[in-house]
């Protein structure tokens, strides 16, 4: 499943990463997942969630508490860091959501068109020297 989320509130990059992780975990839980493997390009978030870094800011502590609670809903949970270059899809979706800031539409469907609806046959045009 692919989705984009538009925050209707101001959020730092770290808070946006945490919000996305919490939302993704809740969606996986609602879908009935028992094992969850998640990826993030945020070294700080990954290391805080995996217990390698301590969260000092109060809001980060609160996000970690939510994530710890959500982790108990899965038989296994893993969060791995990936490079920003490998996270192009998530980056593109976040840009899409931001670009649609003034758009009142709540749902956007992207259709993939594998081929044109009309044939693109190219026919040579004969020319004569009078034209």
UniProtKB/TrEMBL annotation:
Residues 46-73 form a coiled coil. Pfam families: RVT_3 (PF13456). The keyword Protein biosynthesis does not apply. Keywords: Coiled coil. Residues 3-96 form the RNase H type-1 domain. It comes from the Eukaryota. GO terms for molecular function: nucleic acid binding; RNA-DNA hybrid ribonuclease activity. This is Ribonuclease HI. It comes from Sesamum latifolium. The lineage of its organism: Eukaryota, Viridiplantae, Streptophyta, Embryophyta, Tracheophyta.
């Amino acid at each position: 499943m692919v989705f984009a989320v538009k925050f209707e509130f101001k959020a730092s990059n770290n808070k946006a990463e945490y919000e996305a992780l919490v939302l993704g975990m809740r969606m996986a839980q609602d879908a009935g997942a028992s094992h969850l493997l998640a990826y993030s390009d945020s070294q700080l978030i990954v290391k805080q969630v995996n217990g390698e870094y301590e969260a000092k800011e109060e809001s980060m502590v609160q996000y970690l508490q939510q994530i710890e609670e959500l982790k108990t809903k899965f038989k296994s949970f893993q969060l791995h860091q990936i490079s920003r270059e490998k996270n192009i899809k998530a980056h593109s979706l976040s840009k899409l959501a931001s670009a649609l800031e003034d758009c009142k539409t709540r749902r956007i469907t992207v259709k993939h068109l594998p081929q044109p609806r009309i044939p693109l046959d190219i026919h040579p045009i004969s020319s004569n020297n009078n034209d």
